[in-house]
Amino acid sequence: MLKWLKQIRIKKLIKLVVLNDSVLQIIIDMQRVGDENNLKPVLNNDFLKWVQQQFVINHAILLRFKRDGYMQQSSVDFILNLDKELRKWYRKSPMGQSGFQTYDEAYNKPLRGWENICADFFDDTQR
C-alpha cells in the first residue's frame, strides 16, 4: 500500500476508535450522573450493559492499536459496526430527534482537535 494512503487509513482508524471510546464514555457518564443525583434512569439496564461491554472491547482495541501500530481486520469491522450502532442510538435519542445537532456536531469535535490527537496517538507519553 502506498505510504500516504496507509497514513490516511491510520488517521481514519484513530479517529474512529477514539470517537467510539469517547461517545461510549459519555453515555456511561450520563447514566452515572443520573444515578448519583437520584434521577430516573437515563438508559435501560440492557442497553447500559451493552454500552459497558462495547466500551471494554473498544478500549482494548484502542490500547492494542496504540501498542502495535496496526489494527486487525476483525477489530476494524468491530469499530465500524460500533460506529453504526452508536449513530443509530443517537438518531433515536431525544438529542438526535430534536434536530438540534447531528451526531458529528455533538461528538466529532474533540477539544484538542483531530490533528493533535492523531499526531500524539502513538506517542508513549500520551498513554
Would you kindly provide a written description of the structure presented here, covering whatever features stand out?
- Helices cover 75% and strands 0% of the residues.
- Helix 1 runs antiparallel to helix 2 and helix 1 (3-36) crosses helix 3 (73-92).
- It has one domain (3-122).
- It is mainly alpha-helical and 127 residues long.
- The chain has helices at 3-36, 45-68, 73-92, 94-98, 103-107, 114-120.
- It starts with a helix and ends in a 7-residue tail after the last helix.
- The model has no long low-confidence stretch (mean pLDDT 89).
- The protein contains six helices and no strands.
The main pleated sheet reads as: none
Tally of separate domains: 1
The helix/strand class is: mainly alpha
Q: Span from first to last CA?
A: 28 Å
Mean pLDDT across the residues is 89
Shape call: globular
Computed CA radius of gyration, to the nearest angstrom: 16 Å
Low-pLDDT residue intervals, each spanning 5 or more residues:
none
Given the structure, what is the number of helices?
6
Q: How much of the residues is beta strand, in percent?
A: under 5%
Number of strands: 0
- The level of helicity is over 70%
Q: N-to-C SSE series? A: HHHHHH
Write the layout of secondary structure elements.
Layout (H helix, E strand, L loop, with lengths): L2 H34 L8 H24 L4 H20 L1 H5 L4 H5 L6 H7 L7
Helix pairs in contact: 1-2, 1-3
